[in-house]
Write a structure and sequence with these properties.
By secondary structure, this protein is mainly alpha-helical. The protein is built from six helices and two strands.
Length: 116
C-alpha cells in the first residue's frame, strides 16, 4: 500500500526488519570503517585504482608503516585484496558495500556536508 506521495507505508517494510540487531551491528561496523579519514581516503583511491602500498601512502598522506597496518587489517577482514608482484603488493577494494557508500558520499553536495 502506498501513501498519496507515492512512498510505501513503513508497515510494508516489516518483513525487512528480521535480524534487526545483526543488521544494525553490521551497519555500525561498516560505518565505523568509513569514519576514519585515512581509511576513507584509502577507500576512495581503491574504488578507482589498484595501487601499491607506497603509491597509496603517498596519495593519502600516510607513511608506509601506517599504510601497511591499515591495509593488513583491511585484508584480514576481507575488505581489500592483495596481489603481490615481485617485491610489491598491489591492493584492490573487494567490499561492494564500501564501494557503494564511498560513491554515495562522493556524490553528496559539498556545502550540505559542511552543514553537518
Amino acid at each position: 500500500m502506498a501513501r498519496d506521495n507515492g512512498y510505501p507505508l513503513m508497515a510494508d517494510y516489516n518483513y525487512q526488519f528480521t535480524n534487526t540487531e545483526k543488521n544494525a551491528d553490521e551497519a555500525a561496523e561498516l560505518l565505523s570503517l568509513l569514519a576514519n579519514s585515512v581509511r576513507f581516503r584509502i577507500f576512495q583511491v581503491l574504488c578507482h585504482e589498484h595501487p601499491s602500498v607506497k603509491d597509496l601512502a603517498q596519495r593519502v598522506g600516510a607513511n608506509s608503516a601506517q599504510m601497511s597496518k591499515y591495509l593488513s587489517d583491511l585484508y584480514d577482514r576481507g575488505i581489500v585484496d592483495r596481489n603481490k608482484v615481485a617485491n610489491e603488493a598491489f591492493y584492490s577494494l573487494e567490499s561492494i558495500a564500501i564501494k557503494r557508500l564511498v560513491h554515495t558520499i562522493e556524490t553528496l553536495d559539498a556545502p550540505n556536508l559542511q552543514a553537518l
